[in-house]
Each structure stands twice: as C-alpha cells, then as structure tokens.
Design goal:
It is a single chain. By secondary structure, the protein is mainly alpha-helical. It has two domains: 595 residues, no CATH class; 156 residues, no CATH class. The protein contains 27 helices and nine strands. Helix 2 packs across helix 12. The chain is elongated, with a radius of gyration of 40 Å. The N terminus and C terminus are likely disordered.
C-alpha cells in the first residue's frame, strides 16, 4: 500500500472515529445479523415480490434489466443513505433533527407516512391466511378456489360448468377472492349491508396484529430473535419452491419462450416499462427508508455496515428474481393448459376475469395494444393497468397482490392436486405470510421507536404498554377494510398513500435539509465513511466518492423527476379537480377532499412544525438574534458526541445560556472542523525547519543589537532600579555566545582538560584582546547543556563594563552557568555551597 493510500485510509478512519461516539438509548442489537435481517423486512415483502413478478410477465426480461440498472443508479444509494444516516446519528427520523431543528417537520411527516402504510397494508397479510387454510387438502380433493361460489356475482345465474363436468377456473378463482376472502355478497345490490364488519376478515386481521405485538413486546430482545425465523425461513422456502418448479417445467414447457413479452428492440423505446421499473425501484428500496434508518440506528460502533448492506442487496435481488421465475413458470403452465393470463379489475365479477381461453379471440383492447405498451401504475399493495378505451369511471384496472390472488391459485387449480402436491401451495402461502409479517414488524417497530424518542426516559419503561396500544389502534383503524366495501377502502388508501409521489418529495426535502442547509459535520463525506468504515481501499477510495456524488446530485434530481412523472401519469391530478362531475363511481364525493388531505397533511406538517420551532427558538435563547437563528437551522455542535445524541429534545437540550433574570452569558464561537487532513511529510518537515530558522535569526539579531549597546533591555544599576521591572534578554543562540566570549573575557582557570569560573572575581574589559582562538572543545563545554536550573548570576557585565548581579530565570543565562564536563552537576555551584554540601 502506497503512502497516498495509507493517508487516505487514515483520513477515513479518523473521520469515522469522530462520527461514532455514543450508542442508541433504546439499546443495541444482541446478534450480529439481526440488523441485516431486520432491514430485509424493509426491502422484501409480499407486495414488491408480487409487483415485480407481474411486471416481469407484462414487460418481459426488459423490465428486469431496467430494474437492475436503476437499482444501481438510484435504489442502492437511496437505501444506503438511510441506513448510514441511522448508524451515524443513532436515532430515527423523528429525533434526528437536533442537527437542524427547523426541519423537524420532515421527521414528523415521514413518521406519518410509515404509520399510514402500516395500518392499511397489513390487510393483505390477513388475506393470505385464508388461502393458507384452504391449501390443506388431499390429492383426491379439489382446491376451494376451483369450486363454484353461486352466492357471489351481480349478474344472477352464471354458467360455470363445461360439458365434461370441469368448472371454469377463470370464474371460480375470482369468485373465491371476492366471496370467500373478502366476504363480499353482491355488493352492488345490497347497499344496506355495506358497512357490516365481516368476522372472518376481522379475525384474520386480529391474528396478524397479535403476532406483531408478541414479536415487538420486548423491544430489541424479542425482535432480534424472531427476525431470524421470519426472514430466513421464507428465503429458504422460496428457493425450495423454485427448485420444484424448475424440475416440473421440462415436461410442460414444450419449447415456449420463458419471457414471451421480451422485445430487446424496445429496451430504450418503451417508456411504460421504464416508468414501471422506476417506480418499482423506489417502492422496493426507498419507501420504507425511515424504518430502515431506525433499524440501523441500533448498530454498535464500527459496525460493518457495508457488509450488511451488501447482503441485503444480494438477497433482495435474488428473491425478486426467484419471484419472477415463479410467475413466468405459472404463466407457462397456464398456457400449457390453454389459458392466457391478462390484467383485470376488481370491481365486478365481469371485469375481474384474468384468464382467457386461447381458443377465444382476445378483446379489442388487448388485440390492438400489447400489454407491455399499456400504462402500469405501481402502488404499494397492488398495481393498476390502464387499458386503451377503459371506462375509468367504473373500472380502475387495480388488483392487489396479483401473484398470490390470481396467478398462483389459478395455476394450482388448472394443474390439480394430483399432478402437483398441495404441499407446494401450503409452502407458497406460508412464505408470503412470513414475508408479510416480517415487513409489518419492520414498519411498526420504526413507528413505536420514533414515538418513544419524544421522551425516552419516561416512555422506555412502558415499551410493552405502548406497543400494545399502538397495535390496538392499528387494528381499530383497519376495521373499515374488513367490511363489505373493504376492498374499495383498500384501493382508495393505496391510490392516495401508496402512489408514493409525496413520499419522494419528503425524501427530496430531507436530502436538501441535511446536505445543503445543515452541512458539516453532516456532509455526504461523513455519512459515506460510516458506510465504508474498516473496508478495503477500493471501497473507500472509489465507491465511497461515487455514493457521495450520487447523494448530492443524482438522487435529488431523480426523486424530483420521478415524483413529477408518477403524479402526472398516475391520474392523480383528477384527485384535486373537485369540480369534475365524474371521478370514480364507488367513491363518495367527499373522498376526494379526504384523499387530498392525506397527501397534503404530511407536506403541510413541515412548515407548521417549522413555525412552531421558530417561535420557540427565537423567543428564548442567547441575546444575540443571529445566534438564535443559527441555533434554529444550524446549531453548533460543541462536541463530537452530538453526532449520535438522540436524547436531544429541541428546546430543552440545546445549550440555552440565558436565565430568567436576563443576564448576559457568553456563548462559544463556532469551533473549526474537528479534523483537518494532515500535510504531507515533506511539507510538514519544511515548515518546521523554516520556523526554527526564522526564530533563530530573530533571536540572533536581538542579541547582537544588545551587545552593540543599541538595546536598553539590560537592567540598570541606578537608584531607580528597584522601581523598574527587570527585563530579561531573549534566550541565547550560537552567534550570541561567540560575540560575548570575544567581547567580555572572563577569568578561566584550566585544570586538566576542564575549566571553571572563579566565584565573584570575574573581570570584564573591552580593551583586553581576545586570547587564542576558541577550540571545538571550548565551544562544546560552553554549549553542552540546553537546560539549567534557575539561579542568580553573581556578576554581569553591562554596557559600562560594570559588574552587576542579574537573576537568571530563562535559558539565556544557561551558557554562562555551564559546568565542566568532568563534573556531575549541571550548574556550577558557589564555593560556599560546595563546601556546605561536602560537610
């Protein structure tokens, strides 16, 4: 490793030492992989697994490669930014704003977004329990979703059977989801029962919340253990299921293309595919960034964050690719059974037909426009496919969890339990339940932890109680989704909240507040060092600067473009057009205003909290108004431990230096940066030598001027000597000693090879010529010592050749007090003192 590499490595290590000083007051992970597995709950869930799988069918392999490219460019930097910031500050999005209190509203808005998503997305996990229950059948039985459900459907009598006695699975599978899973009963004709809570749906929802409560009831102690089960088991089960389908494919594929919608000539031309991939990247890596930040805040000092992030990235991409494999396998198996998979809409039984017999001509919209050229809007719980000529007033093109509610059950129903064991259906829905609960735990843990940071000392002992009440509140708020019109409530919340464009705006503001307004010591360089601490040279000197540049330039621009694109192409402008007579048949007129409130309320929280913080800081604090303003948006970090201090509580924990009496108290100036890169070895050595030469030259000139009589720094022997302060000459140097020796000769008695000074009988005469030239031994005897004890010189030769006493308190008199070489004493003692010591 070269010197440049070592200096760069030392710079990164030193900056990291500055940025890691304290631990999170909520505790640290007890196991090394707990943080990594918990972060998987933020990037892997049943929702993005289902969306990725369906998009890979609709767009082919183009979508997969576009997703991977955008993941490297946007997704990974966005994910690593949040976990690096969490480990650096040791706190979540709510209490991190002690670094810039005026932007605390961003933390409040992000906390609200996580709470909204956690309340309504959990309903999808409860649906999986119904499929999981009905998957336990024998090989002689029939899946329940392959049987007719006559009570469901608004068109009266339905023809379900073919002449050979087999049922139409293109009708039974949608009826099962609407009639058994959602408990809908002809919703368009029985309006008096629309708000009745369905017991089975509410019961499944309660089970999910109970599991979440038990997993989080003891904080990190319980969460750090169960995360191993809820993360490792589904990954292993997904791999096992793919291996089974891989062995099942050769007998049924018959040379069909694995991604039939792939057209490489449209890789750069199909904007619909790029928009879908762009949105999917954000919903996978960024929408739960606040939860990932809270999880990373519990890491210990010098935690290998780059290792955890690399494992999360690899596992997430691998599981998504496996889900795409499963989806395309199911699509090929359906094609082998003479079925074609098409997008659907959940509103009516006639619109919720996602299977088309291949011997029947396609509808006009599908025949004229391929699915890959249709507009797809990715939401959190599901996705929308806008077909050409579709009546948006009655049909939305939305369906949640298409992989688990459409594709997989239709595939198992078409093949039958005799050819493929029901065990694989049980395994699939078990995997989805585990993934869904793991993601819900990650979301809800972030909500609970951020609430506790409001007052950690008072609320931390009540962790179990707070967890219980928050889970109860989440269950109560989710009860409207268990009613007859619960699916319409889910679609409304997913349309308003799950679109994510306003969450992108929040992240954009967060980046601007940290890197532009706050700045050092919370620059991108400091945050990226937290990510790559104790890593190799390549990561620190090549990958780290790329991440820093991405956070400052690429990521803000892409978030701005993506939020604009999603808002424009998703049809969300109609939500703000309150004067339009038609919007969506199944939503009441007031729902538009309520939807606008859900999107605008978190954004309005930012200026509202900023005004409150401004009032608190400007009305109390230092007397200087500019210091108050600086404390509001860029407070001074007086010590490096403030980098990880989640106990700061805005007004109470900022260093306010005035009291009730209005006394003036001085405040500390903004200190310089805590770390300055060291100069090179040549620069440091040259600077030191130049400084020594400059000091020596100045001292020599002063002493020469003193000897020539041009300086009056020598104390006088006049009567007013006692009234004047004694001024000591500057320390001697080589030139001064030589001049004094030649101008003021002292009596020297040579004894052998040494010399001694004769007590108080020293004579000075400028007329006496100097003796023989000094030898090297004489100079060495005079200059041999650099430090001497303070003593009083018996005689001193002033400018008038008079002998005076002078106190020697500095290094200037040490040369005259030098002892001979053969003596042990550093300073020559008087004869009387020597005799006293000898006696």
């Amino acid at each position: 490793m070269t010197s440049v590499q070592k200096s760069a490595y030392g710079l990164l290590e030193g900056t990291y030492e500055m940025s890691q000083e304290s631990e999170s007051p909520l505790g640290q992970w007890n196991h090394g992989l707990s943080s990594m597995l918990a972060c998987l709950g933020c990037t892997l869930g049943i929702f993005n697994i289902s969306r990725f799988a369906i998009f890979s069918i609709h767009f082919g392999a183009n979508f997969i490669f576009q997703f991977l490219v955008l993941t490297l460019l946007i997704g990974i930097p966005l994910f690593t930014f949040h976990i690096s910031l969490g480990q650096l500050l040791g706190t979540g999005v709510l209490n991190m704003w002690h670094i810039s209190p005026i932007f605390k509203g961003i933390g409040v808005a992000l906390l609200l977004s996580q709470a909204f998503i956690g309340v309504y997305s959990i309903i999808g996990v409860s649906w999986m329990f119904v499929y999981f229950r009905d998957s336990f059948i024998s090989k002689q039985d029939v899946y329940r979703w392959a049987e007719p459900l006559e009570l469901y459907g608004e068109d009266g009598v339905r023809t379900l059977k073919y002449s050979n006695g087999s049922y139409k699975i293109e009708q039974t599978v949608p009826d099962y989801f609407g009639g058994v899973v959602l408990q809908r009963r002809n919703v368009l004709k029985q309006e008096e029962d629309l708000m009745n809570v369905k017991f089975s749906v509410a019961f499944n929802l309660a089970i999910v919340w109970i599991i979440v409560f038990l997993s989080l009831s003891k904080g990190l102690k319980s969460y750090g253990k169960v995360v191993y089960v809820f993360s490792i088991l589904p990954i292993f089960g997904m791999t096992l299921l793919c291996a089974k389908l891989l062995g099942f494919l050769p007998s049924t594929s018959k040379g069909r293309s694995f991604f039939p919608e792939t057209d490489w000539s449209e890789f750069f031309l199909n904007s619909k595919s790029w928009i879908a991939a762009f949105t999917e990247v954000f919903l996978t890596w960024g929408v739960f960034g606040a939860s990932a930040m809270q999880i990373a805040s519990h890491n210990r000092q010098k935690h290998f964050l780059y290792r955890d992030s690399a494992l999360v990235i690899i596992i997430t991409i691998s599981v998504l690719l496996l889900s795409a494999f499963i989806a395309n396998m199911c699509s090929q198996l359906l094609e082998y059974n003479n079925f074609l998979y098409l997008p659907s809409s959940f509103e009516r039984s006639t619109t919720y037909i996602f299977l088309q017999r291949m011997d029947i001509p396609l509808p006009y919209s599908y025949a004229t426009t391929p699915i890959r050229w249709m507009l797809h809007s990715g939401l959190i719980l599901g996705e929308r496919t806008i077909k050409p000529g579709m009546n948006m007033y009655q049909e939305s093109g939305y369906q949640p969890l298409r992989l688990a509610t459409e594709l997989v059950p239709a595939t198992f129903a078409a093949i039958g339990p005799k050819l493929i064991s029901p065990f694989w259906s049980v395994l699939f829905y078990f995997i989805f339940i585990m993934f869904g609960i793991a993601q819900q735990m990650a979301i809800w843990y972030g909500v609970i932890s951020n609430l506790l940071t409001i007052n950690i000392k008072a609320l931390k002992p009540c962790w179990t109680t707070i967890t219980w009440f928050t889970c109860i509140a989440g269950f109560i708020l989710g009860l409207p989704m268990t009613t007859e019109t619960g699916i319409f409530v889910v679609y409304f919340l997913d349309f308003v909240i799950g679109c994510g464009w306003w969450i992108m705006v929040l992240y954009l503001l967060q980046l601007g507040a940290i890197f532009i307004v706050r700045g050092r010591p919370y620059s991108s360089e400091t945050i990226v060092i937290t990510l790559f601490t104790r890593s190799n040279y390549f990561l620190q000197n090549w990958i780290a600067p790329m991440f820093s540049f991405n956070w400052n330039v690429i990521l803000p621009v892409t978030l701005l473009l993506l939020s604009t694109s999603v808002f424009k192409n998703g049809g969300y402008r109609m939500l703000y057009n309150w004067h339009s007579p038609k919007f969506y048949e199944y939503w009441p007129p007031w729902s538009r205003k309520f939807g606008c409130l859900l999107q605008i309320m978190p954004l309005f929280t930012i200026p509202l909290v900023g005004i409150i913080q401004s009032y608190l800081y400007l009305t109390d604090g230092p007397l200087d108004l500019f210091e108050r303003i600086q404390m509001l948006y860029r407070p001074v970090m007086e010590n490096s431990s403030d980098l990880r201090n989640p106990n700061l509580n805005d007004v109470e924990s900022n260093n306010r230096n005035n009291n009730n009496n209005g006394t003036n108290v001085t405040t500390n100036d903004d200190p310089p940066p805590k770390y300055t890169p060291p100069p090179s070895y040549s620069t440091a050595t040259g600077t030191r030598i130049a400084k020594l030469l400059r000091q020596s030259f100045r001292r020599s000139m002063v002493r020469i001027a003193h000897v020539l009589g041009t300086s009056d720094s020598i104390p006088s022997t006049s009567n007013d000597q006692q009234t004047l302060p004694r001024q000591l000459p500057p320390p001697p140097d080589y030139s001064t000693v030589l001049v004094e020796i030649n101008q003021c000769r002292r009596g020297i008695i040579s004894v052998g090879n040494s010399s001694s000074i004769i007590g108080n009988e020293t004579q000075c005469s400028n007329e006496q010529p100097p003796s023989s030239p000094l030898t090297a031994e004489d100079v060495a005897n005079i200059l041999r010592s650099s430090l001497r004890r303070n003593r009083t010189l018996p005689l001193h030769c002033n400018s008038s050749n008079n002998l005076v006493e002078q106190e020697c308190t500095s290094i200037q008199c040490l040369v005259e007090s030098a002892a001979p070489i053969n003596q042990d004493s550093i300073v020559v003692l008087d004869d009387t003192k020597t005799e006293e010591q000898s006696t």
